[in-house]
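Fold this sequence, please.
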Amino acid sequence: MRRLFAAPVLAMLLAAAPVAPGKFFRDAPYAPQMVVIPAGSAALGSPEAETAREGRAPAVAAFEHPQHPVTFDKAFAVSVGHVSVRQFASFARATRRPMAGCVVALNGAWSDGPLAAYSYANPGFRQHGDEPALCVNWDDAVAYAAWLSARTHARYRLLTEDEWEYAARGGTATARWWGDDSADICTRANGGDRSYAATMPADKSANLACSDGYARTNRPRQFAANPFGLHDMLGNAWQWTADCFTAVPGATPPGPCTARSIRGGSWHNSVATLRSAARFCLPPGMRSTSLGFRVMRELP
């Protein structure tokens, strides 16, 4: 296969990579587009008034308390959108990693477990190549980041929960980057709405007040970016993070990691889930048709 860049040229390109906040760049044609997130501070987690307003069950809301301050002394880069089907397929072809088996939504119901016929290449519905790669478990996502790092000689990985929420908030302190009001959510994010409910009528959590136009995933830039230039941080597909899930944000897990944190919500989730502070988790081996990821890149 023809090499896209000779090693010395690649090294020069990486050394010249933009680091100014708000700058967009791409390390290679097969790599995700990245945007530089500024250094700064934020309060992560939610105040109790927010979870009460959103109607969160106390046990679930407790995962977001207490709020805690974080400071990032250095800028870092985050992929503008989810890692796409096309981008993930480059990794799958190169590594021949076995990744069959996925929990899918078919005929108005979720499968009881993973079905061998489904994978990132066939999540149970038709996707365009630039839509999010789904049916990816935590190990698959980590392996993709390692492969991308080796190919580009840059440092890619999954975001920590703190990095994810800081990036998702985009410098805001409200429940969602656009504010506290969820009335216009269908113009801001792809969640469980009327379009979704038409395909899954048994799911009573859907928001029937509006339609975002997508029963499943959407292509990039169909909804506005947050103030840091990131699209679909809320909705479209859940995103794996690097962290082991703990009931208290930032705590040290008491033993082996049995669940990894996921953030952002997806095309089937309720309005209350599509918030910057909402936290959930899944076993790292889970592959689901609503679960994808994005990557971060460390900067010099």
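The radius of gyration is 19 Å. The chain has seven helices and 13 strands.
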